[in-house]
Amino acid sequence: MDLWNIKDLEPPPVTSCKACTKQIDVRLLHAVLQEGVNFFSNQHHLFTEAALLSRSVYRFKVKFRSSKDFKIVEKLNHILRTYQRMHISAALNVLLVTIPQNYKSNNTYMLTKNMLDYVLVRLQGVGKLLCATLEACKEVSAAMQQRLRLGHFWKVAIVIFATAARLFVVVKNALKYSCEMYGHLLPYSASLGNSGVQWLPEGYIFPSHLDEWLEIDWLDLDNVVEILDDDAILFYLKQTDSDDFYS
């Protein structure tokens, strides 16, 4: 199994190693990690849409338990739950706290190469999961469009279709950010040292560009992210609690 695909990947020990800051832009590294922690800790829109989808699965799973298109919705829900369990912000924060506030050019102890390599591998996994999410969103949208054409439970279909559409936009933004962050962190892997055994398997090579490795070609396109406000979300939750919603 590929390293990025291991569910419970054991991280390397949290330790420090002597580094020459003349070869490392410490301020830039700190800024990149801080921004990454902020981004992955505050994915309000993504987690809100994931919660709406999870609520829909919970409410509809009995009525549609034998429906093939609902299995696709459950698949999307499972992928999103897996992504939420990765806690990439916590892994980034471990690196962030090891960077000293005051440092000298030739006598500074910082994070190790092993610790950074672990985060790079996790970012590969994040990229794969987000790509799988995008594909699942497309499948869900196609299935719900078919249900809308047939007119069967069209209220349910349009709600799930709208949720998948919003998820698609938000996840694309998260994937774009993940690829950019990977590109910022990768050069530091060659500059940092280790104290102890190498964590990466022998011969493991990181791709130079995460987007090329993931085979996506739309990162240079600008996307406008427009999400419904909280009032609309609360309205949806009230509607799904009503028995009339299923008629």
Automatic annotation (TrEMBL):
<dbReference type="GO" id="GO:0005634">
    <property type="term" value="C:nucleus"/>
</dbReference>
<dbReference type="InterPro" id="IPR027951">
    <property type="entry name" value="Nepro_N"/>
</dbReference>
<dbReference type="InterPro" id="IPR052835">
    <property type="entry name" value="Nepro"/>
</dbReference>
<dbReference type="Pfam" id="PF14780">
    <property type="entry name" value="NEPRO_N"/>
</dbReference>
<protein>
    <recommendedName>
        <fullName>Nucleolus and neural progenitor protein-like N-terminal domain-containing protein</fullName>
    </recommendedName>
</protein>
<dbReference type="GO" id="GO:0045747">
    <property type="term" value="P:positive regulation of Notch signaling pathway"/>
</dbReference>
<feature type="domain" description="Nucleolus and neural progenitor protein-like N-terminal">
    <location>
        <begin position="4"/>
        <end position="185"/>
    </location>
</feature>
